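pls ignore typos typing on phone
zinc ion + seq
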Amino acid sequence: MLELPELINLSRQFNDTLLGKTIRTGSLGNSPHKFVWYNRSETEFMQLAQGKQVGHTRARGRWLFTPLDPGYVLVLGELGGKILFHAPGTKLPAKYHMHLEFEDGSLLTVAIQMWGAIELYETGKEQERQYIQGMRPTPLDAEFTLDYFSGLINALIPGEKRSVKGLLTQEQLIPGLGNSIAQDILFNARLHPRHPIDQLTATQTNDLYKAIQETVNTASAAGGRYDEVDLYGKPGGYVRLMDSKSAGKPCPQCGTTIEKMQYLGGACYFCPKCQE
Ligand SMILES: [Zn+2]
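k done
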């Protein structure tokens, strides 16, 4: 699944490559898929998209917002898969769930794996969509301060018991983070995935806050994770510290063998010595 670092990188690449292009034609794909969420029929989608010009894309949470001017916004989100640019003259990929062809002959395709949304809204209406409406501050937002973060944790403590992994991955409490980047954030913050949030010291809260921002920034500056591809089909340059390849290998900090456990809907990789 694409998480915030990959989406930040994609938004930059959209702005470098697609900004100002005019849509000539397109489709909602050649390969029906149960878990692709569309909000319009292909006919309606294409009638609205045709002749529109690509505006300035931004990433927020697990969503990409691309204005199709005038009047509309393309929303790609909660998705696993590939969002690819193709130079003029390139053949379309074998399977895809949306393609747009621009007046210069270049193409944008989206091929979903797992699931994902491909939706077109009148500008402003996208903010009423479930999961976008009421989205909490994301690590990129100015409101995501240490005070905000501490307040979020304090507000969650009286509710159900929650661990730091739960804080990072459940209910979009911190939109844009997912199971992949959360592993490295917890390693950088030296916190065990099961560490209860009601037992975080002020220093640990501060370390976790810093680790969220630093890990997201480092991964997005490197072009996203190495196990996802960017707009040009190139793997990201961010090699995860804690993933399936790390299990059984020595911790980069202390040399202790990295462990794997199943916890909260996915595998966790962690150093039993560094992370408490
Ligand atoms: Zn270690």
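The CA atoms of residues 180 and 243 lie 8 Å apart. The chain has a mean pLDDT of 95. more later
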